[in-house]
């Protein structure tokens, strides 16, 4: 998120979107890309988070971007909640497998309760899978560091399609999950295993090895150049700076790709 300077309320939403993308992408064992995107009529009108599955050359990774109208945010005040930031809008989850399969997209209305609640609605309507999600993101101060560092985390409880369960089991487990506090999710001194034990010590829980996820942006100057080649010379000239260079800035990572218009 360091590529974007955003007020704290907007950063929290972006952090939660990144965590949700990572939760869903790893749960699906996706080899391609999964995108979580919100479009809204409020001050925070666009949030996008991509999860990339690992391939031969690159690790699993995430990237994110949020667009904010600073003037409209100033009218809301510094403590605006999710409902105030977004107003009405939609959440789209797009799955693009790298090998085989077709691109899939599901869209639901944004819940005023946040990204996690919106995703629960998505699973309930699109997949008919009972799902409970808790997400949190916050800037935390650590000893010896002058500036806070952002930390984001989430936990998702879901009934698998083949599961044999009773409604009482789901009600009990989902109710337990909803007791999780934001500070428990982002606390650097609280291991995930300890939190799981607090929540589900009466149930059989298996913990799998941790999987590293890095920052990853697959923006590509050559791909941008190939798109520009379809433009006319006059259109390319209109996009170029006075020195003849077309500069395209990636909104995710901030990289500026410089392309010589005459070479195209």
Structure described in brief:
The protein has helices spanning 8-27, 70-76, 82-86, 115-127, 167-177, 182-186, 192-200, 221-228, 233-239; strands spanning 33-40, 44-52, 61-68, 89-96, 104-109, 131-140, 149-158, 214-215, 245-249, 256-260. It is α+β, with helices and mostly antiparallel strands. A 6-stranded mixed β-sheet has the order 5-4-1-2-3-8. A two-stranded antiparallel sheet has the order 6-7. A two-stranded antiparallel ribbon has the order 9-10.
Write the SSE topology.
Elements: H1 8-27, E1 33-40, E2 44-52, E3 61-68, H2 70-76, H3 82-86, E4 89-96, E5 104-109, H4 115-127, E6 131-140, E7 149-158, H5 167-177, H6 182-186, H7 192-200, E8 214-215, H8 221-228, H9 233-239, E9 245-249, E10 256-260
Parallel strand pairs: 3-8
Antiparallel strand pairs: 1-2, 1-4, 2-3, 4-5, 6-7, 9-10
The overall pLDDT average reads 89
- Strand composition percent: 25-35%
Distance between the termini: 33 Å
Number of helices: 9
What would your notes on this structure say?
The model has no long low-confidence stretch (mean pLDDT 89). It contains nine helices and ten strands. The chain starts with 7 loop residues before the first helix and ends with a strand. It has helices at 8-27, 70-76, 82-86, 115-127, 167-177, 182-186, 192-200, 221-228, 233-239; strands spanning 33-40, 44-52, 61-68, 89-96, 104-109, 131-140, 149-158, 214-215, 245-249, 256-260. The strands form three sheets. The chain has a six-stranded mixed sheet. With 264 residues, the protein is an alpha+beta fold. A hairpin with a 7-residue loop joins strand 4 (89-96) and strand 5. The longest helix has 20 residues, at 8-27.
């Amino acid at each position: 998120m360091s590529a974007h300077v955003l007020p704290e309320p907007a950063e929290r939403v972006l952090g939660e979107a990144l965590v949700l993308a990572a939760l869903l992408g790893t749960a699906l064992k996706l080899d391609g890309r999964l995108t979580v995107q919100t479009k809204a009529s409020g001050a925070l009108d666009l949030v996008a988070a991509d999860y990339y599955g690992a391939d031969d050359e690159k690790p699993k990774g995430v990237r994110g971007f949020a667009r904010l109208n600073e003037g409209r945010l100033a009218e809301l005040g510094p403590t605006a909640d999710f409902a105030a930031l977004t107003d009405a809008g939609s959440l789209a989850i797009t799955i693009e497998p790298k090998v085989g399969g077709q691109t899939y997209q599901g869209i639901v209305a944004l819940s005023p309760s946040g990204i996690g609640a919106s995703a629960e609605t998505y699973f309930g309507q699109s997949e008919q899978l009972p799902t409970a999600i808790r997400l949190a993101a916050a800037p935390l101060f650590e000893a010896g560091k002058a500036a806070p560092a952002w930390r984001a985390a989430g936990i998702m409880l879901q009934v698998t399609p083949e599961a044999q369960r009773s409604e009482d089991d789901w009600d009990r487990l989902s109710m337990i999950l909803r007791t999780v506090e934001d500070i428990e999710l982002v606390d650097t001194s609280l291991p995930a295993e300890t939190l799981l034990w607090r929540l589900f010590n009466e149930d059989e829980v298996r913990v799998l090895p941790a999987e590293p996820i890095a920052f990853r942006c697959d923006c590509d100057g050559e791909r941008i150049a190939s798109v520009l080649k379809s433009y006319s010379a006059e259109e390319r000239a209109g996009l170029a700076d006075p020195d003849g260079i077309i500069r395209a800035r990636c909104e995710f990572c901030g990289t500026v790709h410089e392309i010589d218009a005459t070479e195209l």
